[in-house]
Amino acid sequence: MNETQTPAAARRADPDRKSRIVDACLDVIAERGVAGTSHRVVAAKAGVPLGSMTYHFRGMADLLHQAFDRYAQQCIDVFAERMAAVPAGDRAAACEAIARHIEGDLLGTQRDLDINLEFYTLAARDPAYRDIAERWMAASRAQLERFFDKPTAALLDAMIEGLTLHRALGTHAEAHDPRVIREGIRRVAGL
């Protein structure tokens, strides 16, 4: 803030503050989990006054909902972009795109892994977050239905989610083997 700005003017000059808070919330979730996420910790991470939290959000549930909503949209966009690169009707290329999505997009970083697992847990326990999960799954199925019938798309979507969890939790070496992933996707896709 310069000498001629009032504190209120300095706040107005920070139009990205709410977005920064949401991004900081995702970082805190990745570092500490939902249980360790508080207004104070998020405000410190975002570099904003604590009062900004109640100004922009109705409470912690609202902040968490907006943060997970942003994360889900980012994941939806990444999958849509990957599938958009697949030529129409090329089911084999779609299978390869799905495998690459599982191997890289969903769990590309430890941060993504941690946020994903925290979201699964929260959405499983609190119905207030199911709208995000349903929107995310519907968007994934819509991409898959461009190449496969509805039942196959639903099974592939479940496989993506299941393999993601297995890879995240480190269970079953097969979940990490690119050949096994591709073979499973082709089997479900009927190729």
Index terms:
191 residues, mainly alpha, 10 helices, 0% strand
Question: What can you see in these coordinates?
Answer:
The chain is mainly alpha-helical and 191 residues long. The chain has helices at 7-12, 17-32, 39-46, 51-56, 60-84, 91-105, 110-125, 130-144, 150-169, 178-189. The longest helix has 25 residues, at 60-84. The termini are far apart. The model has no long low-confidence stretch (mean pLDDT 88).
Number of separate helices: 10
Number of extended strands: 0
Helix content: over 70%
Portion in beta strands: under 5%
Structural class: mainly alpha
**Which residues sit in consecutive blocks of at least 5 with pLDDT less than 50?**
none
Rg from alpha-carbon coordinates: 20 Å
Shape: elongated
How would you state the average pLDDT, rounded? Answer: 88
Largest sheet: none
Task: State the end-to-end distance.
Answer: 62 Å
Order of helices and strands: HHHHHHHHHH
